[in-house]
Design a protein that fits this description.
The chain is an alpha/beta fold and about 325 residues long. The chain folds into two domains: about 40 residues; about 270 residues, Purple Acid Phosphatase, chain A, domain 2, CATH 3.60.21. Helix content is about 30%, strand content about 20%. The chain is built from eight helices and 14 strands. The strands form three sheets. Strands 3-2-1-12-13-14 form a six-stranded mixed beta sheet, with helices on one face. Strands 4-5-8-9-11-10 form a six-stranded mixed beta sheet, covered by helices on one side. It is globular and about 50 Å long.
Amino acid sequence: MRRTACTRLSGRFSDQKGASVTVKRFLTPVLFGLLLDSQSSLRAEPAQVEFSFGAIADCQYCNVPDNGGVRKYRLSVEKLQACVEHFNTLDLAFVTHLGDFIDKDFASFDAVGPIFEKLKAPRYHVLGNHDFSVADDLKHKVVAKLGMDSRYYDFKVKGWRYVVLDGNDISFHAYPSDSTEYAKAVAYYEQNKITSPKWNGAVGPEQILWLRNVLEKAAQQNEKVILFCHFPIFPENKHNLWNAEEIIALLEQYPCVKAYINGHNHQGNYGTKNGIHYLTLKGMVDTEQTSYAVISTTENTIHVAGHGREPDRDMVVH
């Protein structure tokens, strides 16, 4: 638009004696100013990174052959080792694993656990359905084996509140088949006429009340919130929590919620809804190529630097 305006101005006065000099004198400082503005924009400093954290989904180790399938269970040891070595070269506020640390067998924890413990940054686990694919009499030991004090919890880093949810509250995986909790899962599944696969789960009423209280406090303290869970809730997908819509409705009541990050769907996924970003990280276990991310926060952006199969992504927050 500026070039068009200048052309018209030059043409209007070109047939008047001496006008071309006047026009040049008028346009020179204007154009020079525009040039300076352009150069200033090019020199603009990038947004200041507040901090970064590492994120892994579905390491899912197990000592079984892949039999030509997509999932390379045994290779997860090598992938996790390389990932931890990379993370240890970075200045990370923490590292989170988003569930399904193992595929099955309680002994699998002893293969990947010591590797994860070599991280220099604080470590946080999220419970996945496969983490409970162990003998019934060992299911109650999973939480402690992962070094977790609680099945769901929250923590704060520089004005950001991180909320870790347990999508196995109501589950066919997390409890012995003869337990009261298992019977409750059967009743919940039938009463709510759920058609979603039984390897998903739901967040229970007590945890939802806890979540509401955490979000209330975060809003009062002007904190931004990112949630971690193993199970997705958006976009619509067969891997989603059984009560995904209930959780979304709760999150949308709090503008402080900026993102929900999960695993479970090894293909990965992404969507936004009413100002909240929903990111599913690709599974590390799939294919010979690894997958993980370094996620950085700025005042108005959550930047995902993907590694292996995980793509880069910028998620703008308001």
